[in-house]
Every structure is written in C-alpha cells, then in structure tokens.
Amino acid sequence: QRVEMTFHNMSMMGHPMHLHGHHFQVVAINGTRFAGALRDTVYVPPMSMVTVAVDAGEAAEWMLHCHHMPHLASGMMTTFAVSG
Ligand SMILES: [Cu+2]
Q1: Measured in angstroms, how far is the CA atom of residue 11 from the centroid of ligand 1?
Q2: d(CA 23, CA 15)
Q3: What spacing in Å lies between the alpha carbon of 84 and ligand 1's midpoint?
Q4: pLDDT tens profile 28-47
Q5: How many domains does the structure of the chain reveal?
Q6: DSSP 56
Q7: pTM above 0.85, yes or no
Q8: Containing structural domain, residue 76
C-alpha cells in the first residue's frame, strides 16, 4: 500500500529524517506538489512541511528518526509500522 506522510517542522532547526527499510519519493514541499527524488532521508527545513510517498514494504516496525545524532540521542525517533 502506498501512503503519504508529511513531516511538519515547527522548530527553528532543520531535521534530516530517515526511514529504515524503504525508499520514499518526495512529493510536496510546503504543499506544492511535484515528482521529487527517491531517497531514504529527506531534509526538512525549519518551519516547513515535506510530504513523502512510501510504498509499504515488509511487515515490521521500521525506525523513523532524525539523522542529526544529538536529536536522535535525545529521542527524536518513532516507528513506521507496516502490518501484513
Ligand atoms: Cu533533528
């Protein structure tokens, strides 16, 4: 199943968001849609929104986290759950 996920960064710092086990396509920045690059990490600038489209892969709980290590270390991570 293809799903879209929007990162809404309401902070004054940029966050490189990384999803394990998948590649996603960047499909919008601040609501403007376009066919962007396929990647597994996307930089979300301060005070902005980035939308990605993901084709859900193997059923598992995949880590989704900021790749800025101090942010990751302080808990900026969650899971992207794919159920079979
Ligand atoms: Cu971050």
Answers
A1: 9
A2: 17
A3: 30
A4: 999 999 999 999 999 999 99
A5: 1
A6: -
A7: yes
A8: 2-82
